[in-house]
Structures are given as structure tokens and as C-alpha cells.
Amino acid sequence: MTDPQQFEAFMRNHQDMVFATAVRLLGNPADAEDIAQAVFMKAYERFAEIGGSPATRGWLRTVATNLCLNHLARYRRRWRFFSEMRDASDEDASDFAESLPAPEPADRHEALEQALRKLPDAQRVPLALFHFEGMSYDEIAARLGVSVGKVKTDIHRGRLALKRKLELIKS
Amino acid sequence: MNPEQDLEKLMECELRSLPTPRAPETLAPRVMGTIAARAALPWYRRTWFEWPLGWRVAAAALTVTFLVALMALAPWRALAGADAVAELVEQIKTSMAPAIEIAGRVLRVALPLWNALAQEYLVYAFAFVAALVAAVATLGGAARYLVLREIRS
After folding, report:
1. How far is the CA of A9 from the CAs of A3, A130, A138, in angstroms?
2. A2 to chain B: nearest residue by CA?
3. Pair (A57, A88) in one structural domain
4. What is the pLDDT of residues A68-85, one digit of tens each?
5. Which residues in chain A have Cβ-Cβ distances shorter than 8 Å to B15?
């Protein structure tokens, strides 16, 4: 039987990391909180196995990533399709972040974090998987069920959008 | 280094330097509240997998007993007599389209066969059906458990 107090201490140690993983993939703090809750409920069920394991952080990140991708697939439906529609309409998605009303949080980090969250799913998800989760292009393509070329294109567009945002902040 | 690599390196540096976003203060109370609410549920309102072992065994035994009894005492046993079946078929034939006649003929042939075979293979049939039911119940229970867990989480 898991001791709730012990589990709460465990959760407080890891909650920022889990939430960060989720919010960077989902771009929405409310959804990220739901996902983080789901991750910790799973962790509670398996606390006897993972509680003291050195692989705990990796396990939590993997579960958070999987739940986020499932969430996107299930509830945000067809983000891939959405992305392809944007491609088809010849709209440059990389302009998306800078087309938003100017923010602007004075803090550079905060501005970048906000810009990342406001990227379209099709750009933000592979970008976050690449830079925060350390996945390769091939792994991302396999995980998302899209071509490697599309992953590279989406990540490139996302990076360009963020770079422009950074340049705006500087200027 | 080409421009793409420069961009990748720049963004890697920028993104990696971002501080970890803090989880909302509401997260821990939400999780602990859900855990407490789940723990407060009486055992019979949880999934079968979370029942005490004794109750799980009893429920499984009861289910098997019920199914065996159903097989042994079921109404179709009363219909096993050829007269009753023939009468039923006649009624159906008269009240419904001639197409039923074909089905009636099949039944007339199949039912005596079924009765003859059932006498010999009833035990095996029961065992097969019981195994089938147990498998379906297990799968159903597992599916329900997974769905409920998904909903709760």
C-alpha cells in the first residue's frame, strides 16, 4: 500500500518536470495540468516499482510524452491534417508566432516560452520532442507517423518562427 | 557550418536555457484528492480487479454456476422435444412467409442431431462454453478496468 505522504513528497519533487514536458508539447497549461495529473495517477499505481528507482524521471517523462501525444491525437484531432491543410493553403506557418498580438512579457525567457506555446501543434510538437526530449528526426517521424521530411520541415519552420520572435524581442 | 545547423544550434541553446515551467499549485492537491477519493470508494464500487481476492473468487464462481445452471435449465431444453419444435415451426410457418419453411426443414434435421450429440458431448460443450465465458468475462473486466482507469485519470 502506497503511503500518500511519501507519494506527495515524490510528486512535489517531479511535478515541475512533468508539467514542463506536458506544457511544451501541448502548449496549453490547463491541458498540461490534466496530463500531469494522469501521469501521477499512473505513478501512484506503480509507486512500489518506480518510487525509488533511478529511472523514475525517465519513466515519468516517457509517460508524460506518450499521454500528451495520445491527447493530441484524440482530442485535438488531426493536427497532422490541420498542418497539411495549412501547407496546402500555402500559408507560411512560421509567421504564426509573430503574427500574434505583441506580448509582451518583458522577460526574454517568458516571451520565448509563450512563443513556443503559440506555435501550431504541427511545429511545436516535433520541435519539443527534438530539443527537450532529445529525440532524433527519425524517432519523431516514427512516433508521429509522418515522414522524416515533414518533421524536418515543421521543425525548421518552428525554429524560424522562434528566431524571428527572439529578434523582435531584441529589437 | 550551414545556416540550418546554425539555426539548430541557436535554438538548441535558447530552448535549453529556458527555465523549467513551474507546475500549478493546484496540481498536487488535485492528485492527492483523486487518490483519497479513490481510496474512499467501497470495494464493490471499484473494478473487479481491485476487489478483495475472496470476493473475486466468489464472483467468478457465482458467474460460472449461473451460466452452468442456465445451460442446464434453459428454456431451449424444454423445446428439445421434436413435437414442441415441430409445433413451433408450424406456427411460424403459418404466420410468416414461405421462406421460413426452409428454416423449418433445417431445424427438423438439426434438432434431433443436436439432441443426439448433446447427450454425448454435453459435458465438453459445457466446459467449452464455460471457458469461453470465463475468457470473455476476463477480457471484459480488463477492458472495463482500462476504460475506467482512463476516465479517472
Report:
1. 10, 30, 37
2. B35
3. no
4. 999 988 865 555 544 545
5. 112, 116, 127, 131-132, 162
- What gap in Å lies between CA B35 and CA B43, rounded to an integer? 14
Residue where one domain finishes, among candidates A75, A109, A135: A75
Q: List the single range of A114-118, A120-124, B46-50 with lowest mean pLDDT.
A: B46-50
Shortest Cα–Cα distance, B58 to chain A (Å): 24
The last residue of a domain, from among A75, A92, A115: A75
Domain range for A151 is: 79-170
CB-based contact, A112 to chain B, within 8 Å: yes
- Rounded to two decimals, the pTM is 0.62
Which among A105, A95, A164, A158 is positioned nearest to A131, based on CA atoms? A158
Asked if the Cβ–Cβ distance from B19 to A33 is below 8 Å, we say no
Same domain, A25 and A53: yes
**Cα distance from B62 to chain A (closest Cα, Å)?**
29
Instruction: Summarize the confidence of residues A49-55 as an average pLDDT.
Output: 82
Cα(B63)–Cα(A56) distance, integer angstroms: 41
